[in-house]
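Obj: model holo form, ligand = flavin-adenine dinucleotide.
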Amino acid sequence: MYSYLMTITNAKVRTAAIIGGGVAGPVTAMALRRAGIEATVFEAYAHGAEGVGSFLTVAVNGQRALRELDLLDLVQQHGFDCPRFEFVSGKGKPLGGFPAAPESLKDGLTSRTLRRTDLYTALRDEALHRGVPVEYGKRLVNAERTRDGVTAVFADGSRFTADILVGADGLLSRTRELIDPAAPKPRYVPLLNTGGFTRASVPGDPGTMVMYFGRDAFFCHMLDPQGVVWWFANIPQVRELTPAELAAITPEQWRKRLVDTFAVDETPAQAIVEATEQIAQPWNTYDFPSVPNWHNDRMVLVGDAAHAASPTSGQGASLAVEDALVLAKSLRDEPNATAAFSAYVGQRRDRVERIVAQAKKLSSDKMPGPIGRIIRDIALPIVFAKRAKSGGDDWVLTHEIRWAA
Ligand SMILES: Cc1cc2nc3c(=O)[nH]c(=O)nc-3n(C[C@H](O)[C@H](O)[C@H](O)COP(=O)(O)OP(=O)(O)OC[C@H]3O[C@@H](n4cnc5c(N)ncnc54)[C@H](O)[C@@H]3O)c2cc1C
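Output (holo structure tokens):
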């Protein structure tokens, strides 16, 4: 009997239910297919990400992971390169800058900024093209262990049984709760996010991300090759606002708050905000210091469900792609699902938690008190000069995962 059970548990994983159709979901599905596992993606929303606002930057490590899965073109077909970061104080004083990709990487890749909707849609379409079924309107509510697999139970009453279930269901992951009902909740980072697109005159070369540590808030702009300014801002917000409170902020109130906040700075932020027709409704920032259990014997987490870094890191999407690649490799090389999951977590946990911690520290620099502000504006030029010389973050960007290895 025991050896019979062992045969079952050691049977190679053949099928997977992937929960979530964001970044991690479709990429994991495509990576698993490469490992010989048939994956189906289930997304809670009734439609794709068409029209989802805002934008994100895929760092070089994320692009290199995409390249291993022949997905790099998808990112390169949208948005534009952002080869340099420049930092400026609220008084307009340059604080320093450095390239977005370490010089040691000789493959010509650099950070790429693209609209979130373009990324999600391109990944979904490519997954479909590669034969991955993607089902919408499927919100996971429960999971039941079967003799040799797991059944996903959806809010519409439908069910789907597979050998494994991969939770790519983001920050508020239901899969995380199902794996560990005592799992911690996301940690609130006291910053509101917003952003927009407009035409305005801005300093800096096209593609350069110019970031301002304003007196009361953080602002970043970049100019795309068509002359459109893409911008985002982080506004300190000590008390976490509820979804209802966020939704109740009218566009006029939000615009006024931003204009008033940036009025004290000697930067283009205020003028850019004023020139923007449609400013994104604010949304809260969260991160995850550590999720104790990323898996059980049949379920495993990838992407934000396992380890959300605050957006300050610029790494969320890239880490999600890295996860997909490592998980698929682990399942390719190790027939026992639990052992494969352990191997995957062993390769990922330290790296992602270090990046989350680093982003938390950077977020704090965006909201110092009056004395902290003075210290920050003195310290940052030294930090950036050191960073430019020593390649302080290179360990994040040069990380390499080879499918063939
Ligand atoms: C303001 C902001 C700016 C950011 N900027 C950057 C950046 O510049 N660079 C970067 O790399 N990252 C950035 N990120 C982070 C990045 O967006 C995320 O890390 C990335 O999207 C994670 O991908 P994911 O697939 O894990 O989660 P998501 O993209 O959130 O996808 C999760 C999916 O799961 C679905 N889902 C949720 N629950 C269920 C359920 N129960 N059943 C079925 N489906 C479900 C959701 O609808 C969603 O489609 C930013 C994030 C924010 C908020």
